[in-house]
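Prompt: May I have another protein with tokenized structure?
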Amino acid sequence: EFWRDLGKLGLLGITAKSAYGGTDGSYLDHIIVMEELSRASGSIALSYGAHSNLCLNQIHRNGTEEQKHKYLPK
């Protein structure tokens, strides 16, 4: 449920373009979210960082249009 709440807040696709369901945020926005999550739980922040940078960011930067529409936030 926690991850769904992050999604509802627009934090799971913070650096993705709004055309793909993101929030057009910057990496500074991402760092601020990471910092705040780290205050509560380092492990949750690490998972969030992996999702945002290792997964979502790579699809956003290198994926095909089909992959972007399928896997990026809605």
About this structure: Residues 2-71 form a domain with the Butyryl-Coa Dehydrogenase, subunit A; domain 1 fold (CATH 1.10.540.10).
